[in-house]
């Protein structure tokens, strides 16, 4: 098979796999073929593998593999950073052995002798910074400041307590079970840098991605220039090739020239193909990170917004604007009566009361927006998280429910009374992301995060 066709097929399969792994859990694809393939690759395959290993190799080997899996996937560990360092150092070593003596060359100027080491050093440095930078650890000393940094929107973030850290969870924060800490404006835990990505080090994570993309595309450019130089030295442009079937001689095509050069400098050729593929994958991922930044949400929040989208698709999200003003006793009695008659609605209604308490406490008057969502948003989120996270959330949820039930008795109005005036949310565009400050302000917040 032609190597270039092979690369195209590989790229196609690889892109499809990435698409299935990334998009499979999203509401749009969850119930379709993509969702089923995602389940097959992420759950069913591992279950089947576990059963097969147990049957073939016995319980002892199976337990050992479970232990390795647990160490690699459920604990903070240096496995992937070491894989990165091995790949990076291996690639640099291959270049110095197979390509350095071509620098400078007919198409590679002398300046690259200085640029190449600088680019390599920059990549290692950005990796070290990303690995060891503080993602925005929330501790006793800064939890109050962290809570004031972002307000709760009562849609994707509600007041709750972190069971492990035993203090309130600020809006946009998340407890990382691997790092064993709450992280402000948490994005995700990156196994490649063995560190969380959050408020304070998101910029370093972006820098790290940029540095890999830079070294990959710069390396590809240098290797292409070296190959052009070799082709020039070999005078390939005027060489003739004989067709074995017809015996007719013709000029060497670019395709044949590329195959000849890869064959001539195979290590450099393989390195070039490898880094261009990595460069493409990283640039797509970097582009996605910028899309998230400009949209005003983190990777963690994008999952929560997917759940909101699913609620909207299931016609389960309602909204109403209510004027905050004191109600008469008659209204209170009517609304309590209505509340008793409509348990179903009241069970659904958590976020309204939470926000109501906050607003009442602050004595705010005017039109305010309230979200009415069923508990299953929380349940869906719980199902997607680890057991630890489930217990942590449910504990915080109980506490929050207690807080809310105490509010209900003192609250001057019943949410069910207002439910009649609510409007069903038909599209995600009707839901405002309060954390989105606009494209460039979002970017500035990432580049110059507020101090914690
Ligand atoms: Zn925590
Ligand atoms: Zn973490």
From TrEMBL:
Gene Ontology biological-process entries: protein targeting to membrane
Q: What class of enzyme is it?
A: transferase
Entry-linked Pfam families: DHHC (PF01529)
Q: Could you tell me the EC number(s) of this protein?
A: 2.3.1.225
Quote the entry's note on domains.
The DHHC domain is required for palmitoyltransferase activity.
Protein source organism: Diversispora epigaea
Question: What are the alphabetically sorted keywords of the record?
Answer: Acyltransferase, Lipoprotein, Membrane, Palmitate, Transferase, Transmembrane, Transmembrane helix
Q: Where is this region: Disordered?
A: 328-352, 375-419
User: How is the protein disposed in the membrane?
Assistant: Multi-pass membrane protein
Q: Where in the cell is it found?
A: Membrane
- Which reaction is the catalytic activity of this chain? L-cysteinyl-[protein] + hexadecanoyl-CoA = S-hexadecanoyl-L-cysteinyl-[protein] + CoA
Query: Which protein is depicted?
Result: Palmitoyltransferase
Protein family: Belongs to the DHHC palmitoyltransferase family.
Q: Which residues form the Palmitoyltransferase DHHC domain?
A: 158-305
